[in-house]
Amino acid sequence: MKNIPFWAKIIFGILACNAVGLAASSVTLPAITTWYADLNKPSFNPPNWLFGPVWTTLYTLMGVAAAGVWEEGLSKMPVKSALTVFGVQLFLNGLWSFLFFGLQSALIAFIEIILLLVFILITFKKFREIKWWTGWLLLPYLLWVAFAAILNLSIVVLN
After folding, report:
1. What pTM was estimated for this model as a whole?
2. What's the CA angle centered on 45, arms 42 and 48, to 5 degrees?
3. Confidence (pLDDT) at 3
4. Which of 63, 111, 150, 153 is the most buried (most CB within 10 A)?
5. How far apart are CA 120 and CA 86, in angstroms?
6. Helix/strand/coil (H, E, C) string of the chain?
7. What distance in Å separates the CA atoms of residue 68 and residue 133, rounded to the nearest whole number?
8. Does residue 24 surpass a pLDDT of 80?
9. Average pLDDT over residues 54-81
């Protein structure tokens, strides 16, 4: 694994993160024009077309950040720990769509997104300690998920 070039780690990271988004879209896209369309949403709800480009960008930044940490060496305990937490938050990221759109449960999804935020914060801290720039690449993701949590809670309250 030591001989994998950095560019290959970046490609792998980007593909792995975007694969989570692709899997989540399997339950998201069918619900957009049905269940989700019928929900009461707050005035600050972004247009549906915005979510795809935003998430693709965020998953790409996440993949580059993970590759930067991976480049420090998987044999190092801080790297293993950081990438494990990263994996947990990535799983939680994908799970949210299945809870919100698949189960059509905004309340359960809201509870889960709070846990996701905690894991993103932990990942941000661990990544930043290994390579400062890898943590900062996660900042847009952290801010977007915080916004999504507010949006999610607003949908719970309005419905």
Report:
1. 0.95
2. 140
3. 87
4. 63
5. 8
6. CCCCCHHHHHHHHHHHHHHHHHHHHHHHHHHHCCCHHHCCCCCCCCCHHHHHHHHHHHHHHHHHHHHHHHCCCCCCHHHHHHHHHHHHHHHHHHHHHHHHHHCCCHHHHHHHHHHHHHHHHHHHHHHHHHCHHHHHHCHHHHHHHHHHHHHHHHHHHHC
7. 8
8. yes
9. 97
